[in-house]
Fold:
Amino acid sequence: MTDLDAPLQLQQRTVVRKQLVSLRAQGMVPAVIHNHGQESIYVMAPALELGKVYREAGKHHPLNLDVGDQKFLALIKDVHFHPAKRRMDHVVFQAIRRDEKVEAEVPVHLEGEIPAEKVGLMILRQLDAVEVEALPKDLPDELKVDAGKLAELNDQITVADLVVPDGVTILTDAEHPIARVVETKAMISEEELAAEAEAAAAQAAEAAVAEGEEVAEGEAKPAEGGEVEATASEEAQKEK
Structure:
């Protein structure tokens, strides 16, 4: 595990734009430090090391950055990955102050067993992280919520259900859903098949009723014609 409190050594760079291709080919990741409205500092670090730091620090854990004799406390604000190679292509650091509140993106963790999964239902994750505001020392590594609330179809957990430590303010809308219980694809397919079968049965029944009515009408007509013919025959006998 990476020691996130140990200083991350960054090298200052002068390489920019098209020259960054050769830099990445050497296993380095270009980065920039935005420093409280002052001139940005262009830096770089080994891809392997920076990748490990990002996986553990995310966008919420303050990092100590060393650039030569300069020292910064910073958060990772943005990371760009190559769309095809999935390599880390660029990192943006935001310098922060220990005595000033900052905004950060903190991951959300569903804690405990999920009852709905035990009965074959599926959990739809709708939010993996929330925006918070806090002093750097108060920034949590994650926010937890009781997964036991997800028991039946349509049950959901929202941002309002999160356990928030003192000194932390949630900026994400409290009503925003984090996770919801939904039917599995198999269940949805079964319901669709059942609905189609029911519709087909209803159509068949309607067709049968309509056919019965036509037959009844067809049988009545010969009866009327027969009655007319019989009457005419009787009249002919009387004339004889």
In short: Confidence is low (pLDDT under 50) at residues 220-240. The longest strand covers residues 70-81. The longest helix spans residues 185-239. The chain has two domains: 8-96, 104-182.
